[in-house]
Amino acid sequence: MTEHTYKHIELTGSSAESSDQAIQNAIAKAAETIKNIHWFEVLETRGYIEDGGVHYWQVTIKVGFRIED
Amino acid sequence: MTEHTYKHIELTGSSAESSDQAIQNAIAKAAETIKNIHWFEVLETRGYIEDGGVHYWQVTIKVGFRIED
Amino acid sequence: MTEHTYKHIELTGSSAESSDQAIQNAIAKAAETIKNIHWFEVLETRGYIEDGGVHYWQVTIKVGFRIED
Amino acid sequence: MTEHTYKHIELTGSSAESSDQAIQNAIAKAAETIKNIHWFEVLETRGYIEDGGVHYWQVTIKVGFRIED
Amino acid sequence: MTEHTYKHIELTGSSAESSDQAIQNAIAKAAETIKNIHWFEVLETRGYIEDGGVHYWQVTIKVGFRIED
Amino acid sequence: MTEHTYKHIELTGSSAESSDQAIQNAIAKAAETIKNIHWFEVLETRGYIEDGGVHYWQVTIKVGFRIED
Amino acid sequence: MTEHTYKHIELTGSSAESSDQAIQNAIAKAAETIKNIHWFEVLETRGYIEDGGVHYWQVTIKVGFRIED
Amino acid sequence: MTEHTYKHIELTGSSAESSDQAIQNAIAKAAETIKNIHWFEVLETRGYIEDGGVHYWQVTIKVGFRIED
Amino acid sequence: MTEHTYKHIELTGSSAESSDQAIQNAIAKAAETIKNIHWFEVLETRGYIEDGGVHYWQVTIKVGFRIED
Amino acid sequence: MTEHTYKHIELTGSSAESSDQAIQNAIAKAAETIKNIHWFEVLETRGYIEDGGVHYWQVTIKVGFRIED
Amino acid sequence: MTEHTYKHIELTGSSAESSDQAIQNAIAKAAETIKNIHWFEVLETRGYIEDGGVHYWQVTIKVGFRIED
Amino acid sequence: MTEHTYKHIELTGSSAESSDQAIQNAIAKAAETIKNIHWFEVLETRGYIEDGGVHYWQVTIKVGFRIED
Fold it and tell me: pTM of the prediction?
């Protein structure tokens, strides 16, 4: 049956390593408290700079999860 | 008195029937747990296709509700 | 000859019935006073909610009509 | 295996009946020549007006289909 | 350590006084129940009109707060 | 009964004083000739500069009013 | 004194000749009935095609004029 | 009968002469292989620069054509 | 003669006081080193929050100035 | 000679590995059947989630190729 | 070697003659002081109106140039 | 004290290696001549293609730095 309802929330994950890892960190954090997460979309990629390089990446994502019936 | 604060959340409703019904389904689901819902806005209309027709409609809406004082 | 000029106006129609009917209502109202209306485009679909369902649909459209030569 | 590639095309469907039917018409037409169509998204809803009502609806959609491996 | 995760929520604040005060009201309301709020961004400034003047301002903001580790 | 039709117009108000006052000035001017104005939305905030400061603020708003039945 | 109010309207001009001329045609038409026009901005450039070439250009502009005090 | 389906494709035309001519060149090229082209819309106007002037114009357009029944 | 060229730069001004003052501060800073500044446009209004209120406002503006002939 | 015409198509590539690899996969697939591909632009980065991590990345790109003269 | 860095600046050129010429004027002005300019993109086309016609065209462009290694 | 003013500039960095490295290269180049760089945001990710793969990545970023008091 496909008449599910989904909720979307907006998160920003951080990583010193890479933009992909910042996304992974935000999803891992969300999965600690939310069940049925199954989708994300990148909204914005930013970062802080120190000593002429990226100090940490900050990626804002929208995460979708199914609301329990 | 009009100095209320409102919160908006983003939901996707599904329906095999029509795009309007997908919106109704998302609102009905939200109303099970949220009081004071009084407004929605369509953000995106999508759907899944099977056998050359729309299998189910998926409409993403923003829903606004008043935060209790 | 095709060197006509067109004007666009922005209207919001309401309907308790459906999103399509809200568009029809706005166009019917505009046609009472404007001649040569021949085109519309949906800008925004919203609505008011009561008792866990859509109380009325509000669709904002841009309507185009030819200015008389 | 999930490393598929998908292609998106943009179509406008027309219907004298409703905005949902204009989408169904575009999908039915596309399905005559394209296999593996499984997704659509509404880009724009417009229409032509005659005698103070919608003469026909025109809905532009993006349609996605899997490229054969 | 900077690998925090942040959540964003969307609020509308109201004020009879000014657009800046509508923002302050939304933040004050949110701070009653959410810890670690540290950032906002204006999404939309609207208002209701009576007697040829702004009756109250309504400003929609996105508010960001750090999720507890 | 809620099946009203609304029209939106776009105005730019000016003020030497503040951005909020530029909005008030546009609404006051519109209210001289239009009845039933009940809503505005800010589209753009600009201004002219002289002597290293804002000489006057120019705020463009969309104003909505109900069309008489 | 600079506390004027301006109104903006949206027009589409047509020309068989060029995109610039389509703009000139819309402005000339508007100037027949509106005083104090002093600014335009291009919103959209489109056109109709026949025999593998542009049959006529259609440029939609926003036109601003000062409301009489 | 108006229940046609239209397809849109995206092209970039080039011209050393003018922005309008870059559009004409893209349409002429498309018309060599596609029937029933009847509409275009400008998406982006760019160009390459040499010796302090525009070396050639590059205009990206969306072109619409009717799918044969 | 009107064939001037203008340059636009993007600045963020800060103020503990108000959003309008954040704009004034950015313009005053720019005017220390740039001549012929005559126009600004608001791109983004944000702020930092402490103790349930706006700690300081941050408004990003585009500033335009005439390049000397 | 620079008066070439280019066509753009929209593809979504998938990868279990990284967002960059999803782009590479879409381009490799397109290059199997299209000649003269020479440019891409990212339109959207999404992904599917399982077990609190990105199960596979889905990046939608626009790909440009020169049409043969 | 392709690991160059490019800078983009935003300029508005003016011309009494045509929209294309306004672009040429901005580029010619920029080329007086900047080396390695090789690309532009149109951001906005506006103009001032007098006596029912375009008095001068104002086109805002983004110009890209390579930073010297 | 927080009443600083920040300036933003737009850069495109290139890398044969990855999209993240293209960002790092643009920042490293900017840091050779600008002090107090402390923030970036991705505006666009593009690239050039050769032999069915990404030849080099081109990422356009907005970089923010504090103007010296």
Answer: 0.96
